[in-house]
UniProtKB/TrEMBL annotation:
Protein's organism: Allosphingosinicella indica
Chain ranges of the RNA polymerase sigma-70 region domain: 48-114, 150-198
InterPro entries xref list: RNA_pol_sigma-70-like (IPR039425), RNA_pol_sigma-70_dom (IPR014284), RNA_pol_sigma70_r2 (IPR007627), RNA_pol_sigma70_r4 (IPR007630), RNA_pol_sigma_r2 (IPR013325), RNA_pol_sigma_r3/r4-like (IPR013324), WH-like_DNA-bd_sf (IPR036388)
Keywords per UniProt: DNA-binding, Sigma factor, Transcription, Transcription regulation
Protein name as it appears in the record: RNA polymerase sigma-70 factor, ECF subfamily
Superkingdom to which the source organism belongs: Bacteria
GO biological process: DNA-templated transcription initiation
Length: 203
């Protein structure tokens, strides 16, 4: 990547810790981001080593090209280096925040090279399935008007489900509990609704 780049970042195949308690790993990652915000380069390397494979996977799903995905990942870590101070552990988990930053950089790169299409919607469904806050996976930009028009073509219950999942911040688990239906049913309904949206959004 040309221009400024985050310091001391290894390849996207960096190792991840094994056998670490999930809560401890989350706390360690949050602390590392706090140190990154203070300008600690070793903390950025720690964040990279622990999360690069997952974040690279997000880039690759959106961009499909490995070279572009690697560039997007580097862009994302430059953004993380500059903006780690905006991470708020009360609003999102560390990996959710990192995934959102990464996805946004990948989507920016995707839009720069192609006309509007539906790949960001495809990636959004996969990220939402990880139970991350779903409002982090659809950008509110020039595509929103087109998306809303297509939402109106869905059945009322499907439109409500997609809006709750991707525009109002509900996770799949929350939707299942709220509706009193199995989690698998929620996921199936969302997949079917997203398939209809893709058909509507495809030029």
């Amino acid at each position: 990547m040309s221009g400024e780049s985050p310091p001391d970042t290894p390849s996207a195949d960096g190792p991840r810790p094994a056998g670490e308690d999930a809560d401890a790993a989350r706390a360690a990652l949050a602390e590392a981001l706090r140190r990154v915000a203070d300008g600690d380069r070793s903390a950025l390397k720690l964040v990279y080593d622990r999360t690069a494979p997952k974040l690279y996977g997000i880039c690759l799903r959106i961009l499909t090209d490995r070279g572009d995905a690697e560039e997007a990942l580097q862009d994302a870590f430059l953004k993380i280096w500059r903006n780690a101070g905006s991470f708020d552990p009360k609003r999102a988990s560390p990996i959710t925040w990192l995934a959102t930053v990464t996805r946004n950089r990948a989507v920016d790169r995707f839009r720069a090279r192609r006309p509007v299409n539906t790949r960001p919607i495809d990636a959004a469904s996969e990220i939402a399935a990880t139970d991350a806050p779903a409002d982090a996976v659809i950008e509110r930009d020039q595509e929103v008007a087109e998306l809303i028009a297509c939402l109106k073509q869905l059945e009322e219950k499907d439109e409500a489900l997609i809006r709750a999942a991707f525009l109002q911040g509900s996770t799949y688990s929350e939707l299942a509990e709220r509706g009193g239906i199995p989690l698998g049913t929620v996921k199936s309904r969302v997949r079917r609704a997203l398939a209809k949206l893709r058909g509507c959004l495809t030029p």
